[in-house]
Description:
It is a single chain. Helices cover 37% and strands 12% of the residues. Mean pLDDT is 77; it is low at 11-19, 118-133 and 135-142. Helix 15 crosses helix 16. The chain has a four-stranded parallel beta sheet with strand order 2-1-3-4, covered by helices on one side. The chain has a domain at 2-106. It is globular. The protein is an alpha/beta fold.
Amino acid sequence: MRIGLYDVNKSSYGKMRYEFPEIDLMKVYSYYKKNKNNVIELCQDYTKYKDYDLFYCFNNKRHIISKNLLQLGQEPNVFLIGTCFYGDIWIPMDDEIEHCEPDITSYSQFLRTTIINDTLAPWVANLFTDYYYLRYYYLDWHWNLISNKIKDKKVIVYDFDLTSNEGWQDLCLRLKQDSGKNFVCRHELILRTIQDLEFVTQNEIYKTSTKYPTKFIINIPEFLENSKSFINEYFYLLKNFPARSLFIYQNHYKQNETPIEKLQFLCDSCMYMLEKGKRLYPVYDYSKIPTKYDYNFKRLDYYFLMEKPGTVLDILLERGDSIGLVEEIKKENPALLDQMSKISRAGVKAGTEKWIYGIR
Length: 360
């Protein structure tokens, strides 16, 4: 196969010192390099995507997104990766790619030398003298190259889904030891197991500032199965997280679950955490195939994250109901519709209103 890698953030690879490779593209390169029959190329023109069997397009900078790039995602051979395409939420690639070791040989010899000899991004570090941006996952053989530089500095781990990397917990502990407690992940930490949650909490792997906290996405099966039971059992862990840090995917379904049942689950989860004195925010996963309901469900992001006034129903009807969602709720779960029309997020938080929780 012929595979193209296109980085929107870079106009000419390997010519400028501050052009560092993106972790995703290095993982893609590593994965397809295993088959010697594959031809993998760095492409500088995304309009040539038809020349490739597979085309990976990376972008993390929202100000340079274009409609043409978004429409490119509809092509069967194109994969859009990076937070720019998914509302600033980090969506991992397929596990077999995500777990590959990054391969920097996809970039020029000049750039490879720069990465190995100067593993931090100096152009960022100069702007923020108290911070260093750690660009990707480092192995033991060159850890000594950075350990002195990050001593007593705040470190921002950047450009990848940390928990998909084998040994991520060891990396966190080493960063904490070598740089102090002040380090933060630029992108979301996806918590996939109870053990991940316990590790992050017990070792304080999060930024304590509530202004720009690390985002943690709860993707733990036990939580998705029964959020109320999970919150009750593990609230001693959840309560330690700073504000605006805990998220759940809102368009993940259980098998045979209806959209109305999913809506109930989302409201139940977010309202129950409010009742317990903590916030939980739904996020929309753009990597999933959208349904006719998704536009309405995305309004829940707005309602809970922005802490909007009014009821859930107020938000859902704010711009009309083009698909008749309210009628479906009334038919399938009238009790839920009654709550949605009378009970507000603010009332549940204040303890003046009581949300009745369904069974999932």
